[in-house]
Amino acid sequence: MTDKIKRRSDGSIDTGFYTQRGRRMRAEAARSIAGAVSPRPRKAHAPGVVWIVLGVLVLGITAPFVA
Predict the structure, then answer these.
(1) SS3 for 56?
(2) Residue 2: which of 26, 18, 25 has the closest Cα?
(3) How far is CA 56 from CA 44, 45, 64, 67, in A?
(4) Which helix (H) or strand (E) is 54 found in, with range?
(5) 11-30, pLDDT tens digit by residue?
(6) CA of 29: how far to CAs of 24, 50, 65, in Å?
(7) pLDDT band at 63; cut points 50, 70, 90
(8) How far is the C-alpha of 16 from the C-alpha of 13, rounded, in Å?
């Protein structure tokens, strides 16, 4: 919080400032919560692994990958 209340030039409390500040803080909290519960993107396998598996399963290639 601020030490001194923010006021407009006419002396009234600057409600727009505090409204905007509250919305920003709420949005940051929502993003933080959403980031904590959303699943992380999975790492893709290297293309080489896909081709090795394809070669072993489909084409029957065994050397040098499978003993």
Answers:
(1) helix
(2) 18
(3) 20, 16, 10, 11
(4) helix 47-54
(5) 999 999 999 999 999 999 99
(6) 9, 40, 49
(7) low
(8) 9
Q: Which of 30, 8, 10, 9 is nearest to 18 (CA)?
A: 8
- For the residues of 2-53, what is the DSSP string, one character each? -SS--B-TTSSB-HHHHHHHHHHHHHHHHHHHHHHHSPPPPPPPPHHHHHHH
What is d(CA 41, CA 28) in angstroms, rounded to the nearest whole number? 21
In whole angstroms, give the CA distance from residue 64 to residue 52. Answer: 10
The identity of residue 16, as a single letter, is G
Tokens of 40: 């992380």
